[in-house]
Amino acid sequence: MADVVEDVQAQEKLIEELGYDDHFHEHHKQDKYASGFISKYVFSQDHKIIAKQFLITGMIWAIIGSAMSVIFRMQLGFPEESLTWIKPLLGKWITVDANGMGTLNPEFYYALVTMHGTIIVFFVLTAGLSGTFSNLLIPLQLGSRDMASPFLNMLSYWFFFLASIIMFTSLFLNTGPFSGGWVAYPPLSALPEASSGSKAGMTLWTMSLVFFVVSVLLGGVNYITTVLNLRTKGMSMFRMPLSIWAFFITAIIALLSFPVLVSAFLMLILDRGLGTSFFLSEIFIGGQALDHVGGSPILYQHLFWFLGHPEVYIIILPAMGLVSEVLSVHSRKPIFGYTAMVLSMMAIAFLSFLVWAHHMFMSGVNPFISSIFVIFTLIIAVPSAVKVFNWIATVYKGNIRLVTPCLFAIGFVSMFISGGLTGIFLGSSAIDIQLHDTYFVVAHFHIVMGVAAFFGMFAGIYHWYPKMYGRFMNETLGKIHFWGTMIGAYVIFWPMHYLGMAGVPRRYYKFDTFQAFADFSDMNKFITIGAIIVFGVQLIFVINFFYSIWRGKKQTTKNPWGASTLEWTTPIRPGHGNWPGKIPSVHRWAYDYSKGEREVITQIEPIGEDEKLDSH
Amino acid sequence: MTLLTIFIIFVLFAVVIVQISRINEMAKAIKGEEEVSDRSMDRQGKLLFGFMVVFLVGTVWSAWAYRNVMLGYGPHEAASAHGGSLDSLFNATLAMTGIVFIITHIALFYFAWKYRRRSNARATHISHDNRLEVIWTIIPAFAMVGLVISSLMIWNDVMADVDPDEDYLEIEATGTQFQWFIRYPGPDQKLGTKNFRLIEGSNALGQDWSDLKNLDDFIAQEIWLPKGKKVRVRIAARDVLHSFYLPHFRVKMDAVPGLPTMFVFTPIKTTEEYREELSKYSEYQVPADPDDPDGPQKWEVFDYELACAELCGYGHYSMRKVVKIVEEPEYRAWLREQESFYVQSIRGTDADPYKDQLFDYELADRKAEFERDFGDALSAADDAARIVRLKYVNFETASANLTALSRYELDNAAEVLQGNPSVVVELGGHTDSAGDADANLDLSRRRANAVLTYLSGKGIDTNRLVARGYGDLNPIDDNGTEEGRANNRRTELKIISE
Amino acid sequence: MELAIKHRADGTRRVPPMKFALWVGLASISMMFAGFISAYIVRMAAGNWLEFELPSLFMASTMMIIMSSLTLHGAFISFRAQKEMRYKGLLVISVMLGLSFVILQYLGWMDLQSIGIDLKGNPSGAFVYMISGVHVAHVIGGIAVLVVALLHAFGLPFIVTQKRIERLDLTCQYWHYVDVLWVVLFLFLTYYR
Fold first, then answer.
1. Most buried of A545, B25, B91, C151 (most Cβ within 10 A)?
2. Inter-chain CB proximity C39 and A149 less than 8 Å
3. What is the pLDDT averaged over residues A300-312?
């Protein structure tokens, strides 16, 4: 960006004079970071490599998870069409009758739906989103050499890898992968007799997720410790960029909520394998009455959603942090209402622990208890709304550089508005009577969490790509990717609101069994075609991503976007330890854009004598 | 093969993409163009603005086009008493969120376009405005409070259980993999107890037959309900979670194994009435079966339906039951047609705990039946027709001991004979052809005597009674079949003189 | 201007990052047990709950683990005060006590079995097995770490450096945690029935 005057020498001088000398490079001369391919790239303990490992693994899972959605959308949109042609991929799960007509096995349909949810929610949007960007940005934006424990950080990725292997293996089981919905409610998930996916598939699914939780916790421990203990000189909490606040608060939520999921899974495993009755009671299945008595399936739901609800905030908060950064950098304006943004993230985090049972309004919970959750759920809409208003105010009177990351950030706000507003309907328990478990819910969470979080992730990838690879992704392809996905995502999910209002339930293999649900074949076709096209557009992104690693336009200046934050003060390809000499010290907040005569004043510059300080 | 083709297409697609981007980069480098040329910003800005217009117009238009599925509009009116309030709340929420949706989107995309980067422009450093924060915190907060209050008022109303002295009909819906069992309480208006350990064979719910309340319960193939009467649905599950979902009635509640749940609602539109309403909308005026253009139209074959709304396995999408709302008289007529499950399938079988007893109504029925048969025999002209077969008189195997239940029939006979003091009857014992003929003769004679003894014990003068054993000499059916032999083993009462 | 990195006069940080990281991790583990405890409370309130007394072996094991924490703390102080023999001895005793805790827990389960409390059957029994079982798994992890400390104690030359003190401190912190955690769980299982 030639319009940003960058005086590399002046900057390096500032770091040399005012920076913090931790004698890092004297201590790490013969360290393990550069001692061989395996320790440098495979079992790396460098946070930047680990970030890329999370990203690539997340992208691979995203392709698998969305391919699954294309397949089951084909069943839903074109139930009369033969699927024989997918048989080479899906094998026994496509049954071909005497006329050569191939149908998808309903059991496998449910496995696809389950796996799609599990993969995208956990592997892509949790590991792939916060794993990538927390690892990449926390040390760089805070001015530290690496995470508090690079070893634990490395383990965090490899536990994720292990979880991935186990989950991937489960796809090829003879009895099929787990098929009881990503929420895995017992008794369906606890009883192998109830469904073929509840046999070995469920065992592997649970194992995989327990390792996944270990990965999240190891990562979270690092993120929190690094944010609290390893900030550079001058970097007070309220000088941190919003992205860091987001990752920090996310890690706290994760650490407090994921362990409860583990407790739920442990009890589920005991019910499955050892005959306990935590969640099971009075069941007759497979021709016999089972011995379990006294358990409650609703207890599982409470424990699951105690994680499940904070989980969606674990997904969206990092995306929000990334969007705040991207919008402000490209608008050349401070993020509007920095303090309000921090406080609203804290409010969202706190409230997220108080709303879980809004997923259970129709589950048989005492209605009085549900009322309390209605109140908290509608309250949590307030800080979310505040954030939206602040983003809009950020672009107001900016000078917005509408490059791809910024386009995705703007798209994020649109998606968050659209998806967030439908949450208000669902949080109203009376309305939820009709809309629970219908396509209205599917539309809501896909737009507000699926698409919005992906947009935040894309904004982050396009924006920090130079930091990761020293090159840029192709802008034209990026814009095609944006517009294709922006329009396509609404094409896919908007009609689902109408399906939901019409009462069409979710998790239905086909709709023609019911008069009430059978009239929407055109709409389903429309949605499916949208899904196929959007999937194709994502491939443009994937190709762009990998091609640009080797052939993308090279980054020639340290700070191509003219950002104020610390990550752009490292060399273009930061080595281990991030800064070759001292660590820069920080003298101001992260948002001095368009202040006075200058378009940007980076955080490392001291306050001028006649400079006025914002109270922000 | 198709898969291979698709794969090759993707590869070619990838190559094309890569080439486009390379050409694109090179062209830019040649032209010396920057990423953020004013022209490019203009284009993106216009696209964003254009998107906003198309998006908002599109969403509003689609809502209008699909208004007939919006809750409470057109044909999609609620068929229950509480449904209307739910629909109104939905629409109020829609109005409020719709306004926010439109305003925020206009603001977002308008600003994105208006403040797109231009080389001669600058951003304005505005970092915060606390007063604005307070305003846009308080307004949504108030809006939410309003929604919470109205929502909870409706919620408490809908979710409340019935008063014990209210007039309501209770039925039970049990979800299983993969069908619903609908149980009605029968004339006693009480559902009998059940126990999952008693589930066996046709007793799909594990009804405990020792509980008398169960004896008149029946299982319905369709849910029939009278219009205007409050219904309490007791919801249960036998194996995994299900959910009792009546979309037209705005009714939904999970079915949990081991934890009965319930939903209370009042249907207010009969199926006929709903059909009438649907007939006004063009989308329902088409033939119901596309292959049968002269057949009935969609509105004519409309039925309310029960669906499952909680994933329960691979058959989750197929758990359908028809729901019919009818006027009270029609409902009562339907009720009369339903037969109790106990009577239909359990009575007299090994599972029946009352196998050795008779119910009052059965006693009454049998008595009426005997009197009728006796009357017919008395008035018959033909000798052969003056016989009443004592169908409910049985003996223990190979003996002349009467079974416990036989006494009821014999009491009936005694009573009738006392009412007709001049009638003289012959009591005839008959066997099948199995075994020794002499033994059969002897057995049949002893059995006839046993009946005589019992009747004389009831005060009938022995002058009027003759006992005779016929052995296997008078079969009335084919001794070659089991059924035929069973028919041949009988005791008969023949009127000799009046 | 406030310094973000809090330094003591000698330049060392106030809370070593790894110790802080450990505490964060321990908070996380506590949440999992909080999940179990709340499930227990909710289930107990629902009725049909068999009441029984915990076998006295569990009291014995509790005593063991408390003692092991005391001896381990002693080992830590000895190390810091450069008392080699005392450090090594107390460390060995602590590991023994830790192992005996595990063994006594196992015997406690056998005792429960003999009075008819099993994993299947009434959840009140299942909860005891599950909670104590998951806890003992964490104790075994702690023993593994203690064994590493033992190997260091007897394998490496005896030099007391700041880094080694901090490393030993982490080990002890974890051990004290599983101890305190057990005391809390034990008191809960004993009195909240």
1. A545
2. no
3. 96
| C-beta atoms surrounding A2 within 10 Å | 11
pLDDT at B104: 97
> Tens of pLDDT along B328-372?
999 999 999 999 999 888 888 888 888 878 888 888 989 999 999
Three-state secondary-structure class, residue A81: coil
Domain ranges, residue C107? 55-191
Q: Residue A1's pLDDT is what? A: 36
- Nearest-5° Cα angle at B147, B93 to A442: 50
- CA-nearest residue to A300 within chain C is C39
* CA of A276 vs chain B CAs: smallest distance (Å): 15
Which of A185, A374, A483 faces B151 most closely, judged by CB atoms? A374
Pairwise CB contact (< 8 Å): A280 & B40: no
Name the helix (H) or strand (E) containing B387: strand B387-389
Taking the alpha carbons at both ends of chain B, their separation in whole angstroms is: 93
- Say whether both B150 and B258 belong to one domain: no
Q: What span, in angstroms and rounded, lies between the C-alpha atoms of A319 and A133? A: 9
* pLDDT tens sequence across A162-203: 999 999 999 999 999 999 999 999 999 999 999 999 999 999
% residues pLDDT > 90 (chain B)? 61
CATH number, residue C85: 1.20.120.80
Residues of chain C with pLDDT under 50: 1-5, 9
Closest chain C residue to the Cα of A20, Cα to Cα? C5
Predicted pLDDT at C3:
30
- Asked if residue B174 and residue B155 are part of one domain, the reply reads no
Closest CA–CA distance from residue B172 to any residue of chain A (Å)? 15
Mean pLDDT of the B437-458 span:
91
Looking at the domain assignment, is residue B104 inside a domain?
yes
Which domains are assigned to chain A? 8-281+289-600 (1.20.210.10)
> What b/e string do you get for B477-489 counting C-beta neighbours within 10 Å, with b at 16 or more?
eeeeeeeebebbb
C44 CB near a chain A CB, below 8 Å? no
Q: Are residues B381 and B236 in the same domain?
A: no
Number of structural domains chain B divides into: 3
Q: Is B180 helix (H, G, I), strand (E, B) or coil?
A: strand
Structure tokens at A594: 């368009």
CA distance to partner chain A, nearest, from residue B81 (Å): 14
Among C18, C27, C42, beta carbon nearest to A299: C42
Q: Which residues pair with A593 in a beta bridge?
A: A600
* Domain containing residue B435: CATH number: 3.30.1330.60
Residue in the block written with tokens 């009935």: B296
Residue B19 lies in a domain: no
Domain membership flag for residue B1? no
Give percent of chain A with pLDDT exceeding 90: 81
Residue B355 included in any domain: no
Give the nearest partner residue to C20 out of A225, A236, A303, using CB atoms. Answer: A225
Chain A: give the shortest CA distance to residue B302, in Å: 7
Domains identified in chain C, total number: 1
Cross-chain CB nearest to A148 (options C21, C29, C120):
C21
Q: Degrees (nearest 5) of the Cα angle B263, B269, B272?
A: 130
Q: Is C24 on the interface with A (CB under 8 A)?
A: yes
| Same domain, residue pair B209 and B328 | yes
- Enclosing domain of residue B480: 360-497
Q: What is the ipTM of this complex?
A: 0.94
pLDDT tens digits, A313-360: 999 999 999 999 999 999 999 999 999 999 999 999 999 999 999 999
Q: What is the pTM of this model?
A: 0.91
The DSSP element (H or E) to which B84 belongs, if any, is: helix B83-114
